Amino acid sequence: MELLAELESMALNILDVPEEGDGTLEADVARWQRLFGFEKADARRRIEEYRSDYSRVRISDELWATVKTRKEAEEYDREAYEYSLKNQPQALSPTSSATVSGTFIVQLMEPLDSPEKIKDVAGLAEAPLIVTGVGEHGQANFCQIDGGTRAKLLDWVAEHHSGFQPTIVRLTKAKKDLCSRSIAPTLAHDSTLPQNRLDDEKDMPRPSQDEYPVLYFFYGTLADPKVLKHHLNLDTEPSLVPASIQDGEVRHWAKYRALVDAPGSAKVFGSAFLVRSRDQEDALRFYETDRYEVVRCRIFTEDGVHQGLTFRFEGWPG
Fold first, then answer.
1. pLDDT by residue (tens digit) across 187-234?
2. Fold exhibited by the domain 103-170
3. Which of 17, 77, 90, 182 is the most exposed place for a label (fewest CB within 10 A)?
4. Confidence at residue 94, expressed as pLDDT on a 0 to 100 scale
5. Where in the numbering of this chain does the Gamma-glutamylcyclotransferase AIG2-like domain appear (predicted)?
6. H or E segment at 140?
């Protein structure tokens, strides 16, 4: 799918989200319970997840026109039919306690109007931090949560405030969780193996989680200076350094290139780029989405070998 078509599809998905208070959610929950066998809380959770995925694939108007009469007779609407096409295995095996992995933001509003309330409802050790953003009615406050917390919040809302629909949006941001006590995660290296353990507990694996500037290796679209200039909002196209890494292999996932572990493999060639700040890194992580993870790697350039980072695909491409 070309970029323009993807953007048009995302815009239509955003416009399709029902307005708050229009009464459609409860009817949709009941429909998904009947069609897919979900419990009420699970149906609500799956609808929230599906509607927050603005990049989901839509069927064509022509296809819906062809099947509409038959599917509506079976109590499907277009949304439920699209969900069934994409998620039929999950729909046939419902679970009332499913937890969706990933990172989310939840808008603070009554009854979930403070980090302390979210902490209490979800049983967290600490209250999540507040981040400021733009909501439906202007500036708003949000808290960043994980999939487990999201599931607990939706269960609590379904039980105690069934008429309330919290605003929870999935952040499609590449994971970054660099361990300070081991080399994990490192491309094609298992940190638990004896040969990969640190010699001294005082050794600090590099790069560290919050180390900037930090050298990144790019092997796909980010190796294009025009793409970097656009996504990092740079005044001029950046200078990239020819580079390579070892122990990885690039496979194709859909139309994209995906780096996966491949111990002992030939070199992967690409470019090195010095990321100067967390803001720049965050922009790159959002670009790569949560299908990728930031991992440590050794980057080879004409100047020598450098400890750096790259984006590894989180699952094996089909």
1. 999 888 877 777 666 678 999 999 999 999 999 899 999 999 988 989
2. Alpha-Beta Plaits (3.30.70)
3. 17
4. 32
5. 216-304
6. strand 138-146
For the record, the structure tokens of 45 come out as 């959770």
CA 178 to chain centre: 17
How many helices (DSSP H) and strands (DSSP E) are in the chain? Answer: 9, 11
Look at domain 194-313 and name its CATH class.
alpha beta
CB 157 within 8 A of CB 118: no
Lookup: tokens for 156: 């609590």
Pairing of strands 304-313, 292-301: antiparallel
Same CATH fold, 194-313 and 103-170? no
8 Å CB contact between 270 and 223: yes
- Using CA atoms, how far residue 47 sits from 28, 29, 83, 108, 144, in Å, is 8, 8, 9, 20, 20
Q: Is the pTM of this model over 0.90?
A: no
Q: Domain coordinates of the chain in residue numbers?
A: 1-87, 103-170, 194-313
**CA separation for the pair 238, 232 (Å, rounded):** 10
Please give the pLDDT value at position 96: 34
**DSSP-assigned letter for residue 201:** T
Amino acid letter, 219: Y
Structure tokens at 96: 């009332």
Q: Rg of the chain over CA atoms, in angstroms?
A: 22
Residue 264's pLDDT is 87
Which residue reads 């419990």 in tokens?
A: 39
Q: How far apart are CA 193 and CA 204, in angstroms?
A: 18
Closest CA to 58 of 79, 43, 76, 40: 79
Euclidean distance between CA atoms 318 and 303, whole angstroms:
37
Tell me the sheet residues that pair with 142. Answer: 107, 131
* Placement of tokens 């859909």 in the chain: 254
